[in-house]
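Fig. S4 source data, part A: sequence.
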Amino acid sequence: MRDPVAPGPAAGSGPRLLDPVFTQVVRDTGASGGMLYLLPPGERTLRLAVLLGAPPEIVTPWVRVSLDAPIPVADAVRERRLVWLGGREEMARRYPRPALVLPYSFVMAAAPVSTDVAVWGGLVLMWPGSHPSRPSPHERGLISAACRRMGLLLGHAAGTGRPMLPGPQPHVLTRPRTHTPGRGEALAAADFAERLPEGCCSLRLDGRIAFVDSTAAELLGADVDELLGALPWRALPWLHDPAFEDRYRDAVIGRRPTSFTALRPPDHWLSFQLYPDATGISVRILPALEHVEEAPPPREPRDGEGTEDAGGAGGVEGGAGGLPRSPAPATPSGVTALYHLMHLAATLTEAVGARDVVDRAADQLLPAFGAEGIMLFVAEHGRLRVVGHRGYGSEVADHFDGMRLTTGESPAARTLSTGVPAFFDSPGELERSYPGLAAWTGKGAWAFLPLIASGRPVGSLVLSHARPHAFAPDERAALTSIAGLIAQALDRARLFDVKDQLAHRLQAGLLPHTLPQVPGLDVASRYLPAGRGMGVGGDFYDLIRLGPASAGAAIGDVQGHNVTAAALMGQVRTAVHATAGAPPGEVLSRTNRLLTDLDPGLFTSCLYVHVDLARHTARLASAGHLPPVLRHPDGHTEVLDLPPGLLLGIDPTADYPTTEIALPPGAVLALYTDGLVEVPGTDLEDSIAEFAGHLEHAGHQHMRALADTLLRRAGRPAPRADDTALLLLSPHHGTGRPRRPPAPR
């Protein structure tokens, strides 16, 4: 039998090729649902490609996941390990942000979809809360095997020039039924339900009513035709309460029966009992015999709620314009809107720049509200500047960039100057107020929201739909609240950007712009900032030409990730430069005495190397720095065992022994900082040995190509928690001794 996931002419294309393996691991592990993420080439954002066992609305906050996000699947992919969460409490302790949006009882596993050479995505599986809190060896084996098979398939597709890429929306799979009833069986089942004294209805996983009997319709006070295909909390205004929708989510995700009691006005208390499985939810509806005190408090529907003409202007610019209401999924309400709001608030607290705010807002708002476009402006010097957009072409952004705030030439400027949101449900509405604008944007409906923080105008947010869309009152209220959150985040982000630019200018001035050319020595250097935080730290490197056949090289790491660390790094580099040429131990001793006199309160590791190209040797001294790796001319590598020495800045009398090694032509000496090799959960010595293996198997390349290869194989430039510096030194043949001048002819 042919492997069901082996590529072939009839296998199809895109992520659907992975469906057989994905559904098999869900079935074999007994998971209630799963998600498959893909990592497109050159990107640092995981994108949800395949979904099984949950409605898309519930997973909307995680359709796109940044690799540095505090999310289980991001950790699994970034660290190449299985992440297992044994229950609700463990989720809340380790990952509070997703736990805030999914406060239900379930067990989760996240694993990298990878091969030996690359990571292609991530797999997420979920079980009911009754599942054992720890994985069995059998489950681990099934998950590992499935991830490897999918990784091989993805690698094969990429190798043939046809990489599998996620679609614009996740591919939603449904579990096949073990038995499909015929027409006669279906009619018999309906007759059975009709004869029961209680009401019966069936919900699909997305919450919509798939079946309802006449008794249930009578108890609910609605016609069967009105209920079929509708969300209960939308079709029945008295069920429009976040607590009721929350019970449905609990049943879908936790896969456990639940119930609630609700008041159907004026005085009919009804009991709802929900029984979920992998294909949907069966609901029993019957009169409540007595009032349940802990039942969610009832409320009367607001004016216009649940009616066709709901969605009036409500005192803001624009209006419904007589348009039909948009499909329900485009307008989150109740507990869905509440969870989107909480998730966005938690997400924005981690934004570290204006561009980051744009990306996080777009990742959450577009799928949550069914929108197709977003544009974010900041107010600067009396104008609105575009800081980011999605769903618009660059020519549209350029057209609106720099508009004056003092004129009414656009609703983005007017809404900020007045502080009043503006909603336009159709191109005709926008055209009447702003002629020509609708054609420029190419959209069908717009929400223009002012971004105001602490009473100060920060900017404007534009959220747009591709087609006409009636903004319901609940949606307008949710968007207005979200605008306040984005305004605060953008205000903080702009301050961060100013500090970040200052820090980077400082660091750029302290690190060498170019390395000197030393005859007979090939060199390459790389510096990468940390993936999160200010992106500035104390890692440094340097190469100093000492003579026609000698050079000094240094690499080090100042404790901390701030401007102070960067400034101290500059002082250390200057001190090493000033004493270069002395024996390596003496260079470190003098630098150490300088730092202890300065007493900066920060410690520094440093490795100094004196390269003698004439004698083909190198002398090294270390102040608590990671051991260098030497690749010999025959290709085998060695992690050099140097006396560690004390960190600089602790004891002014510290001694730094010097070690001499052979450094013949063709050898490669690799100096690096801990950001290149440190991996959470992995022993540092093992990580250094793995790096040495990468150097050994990289082959003979030009130094710059070799540096890029080492960064790639070590997982950079994927985000890491620390800065990375790498310096490669390689003597080559034909130099080292000064050439004699040619004899006169």
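Fig. S4 source data, part B ends here. The CA atoms of residues 353 and 495 lie 8 Å apart.
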